[in-house]
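We treat protein structure as text, and this decision shapes the records that our systems exchange. We quote a single record here, exactly as it is kept in our systems:
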Amino acid sequence: MTRTDGAAALHALTAEIVECRECRRLVEWRERVAREKRAAFRNETYWGRPVPGFGDPAARVLIVGLAPAAHGGNRTGRVFTGDRSGDWLFGSLHRLGYANQATSMSADDGLTLHDAYVAAAVRCAPPDNKPTPHERDRCLPYLARELALLEHVRVIVVLGGFAYDALARVLAMCDAPLPVPRPKFAHGLEVATARAVVVGCYHPSQQNTFTGRLTEPMLDAVFTRARDLASGVP
């Protein structure tokens, strides 16, 4: 598949994702948040739909998060955009050369990614940031299809235990399962599979960044390692 064909296929998948209404609870929640809004964003029009992945169709590094934030991706229409977790993620990607800018406040702010693609295990903002196992599993075929189209991916960075569990199911669907017994999620974890090397990273949530569980040097080290692995450095 050429880069142009891959980009077109990802665009078609994006169009399918944003029309999904399979999970009633998530549909009701994301649309309620979009109507009621947060006071700071009361003059903005919320996206209020599923949030697709985005980035470089030729990426060698795939980054998988949990789900869009209610007033982040659910507002902007782009995952990790417009929230503090995204500030940390895109700041690190910028420092490592994966992003052309360090912040992303809207889907049309000029952010582009090079050699990286960002997606989420669940595409709709969930209540309390907690999708159910049924909602997760219903959404995972989208990630499996993205991974199939991202033919150059050699490293998958999972942000948190939820993303790790979700990816384990996706890799099993793709006939590239994690080893049995499955290694326990940890920051800095590296697990080789037939499809890609999986690298664990604490999620850049405020719960982790405010407490110092995740620091900028720790996050940068993960993406430095991802870059090395994608380039074939042992």
Q: What stands out?
A: The domain at 3-230 is CATH 3.40.470.10 (Uracil-DNA Glycosylase, subunit E).
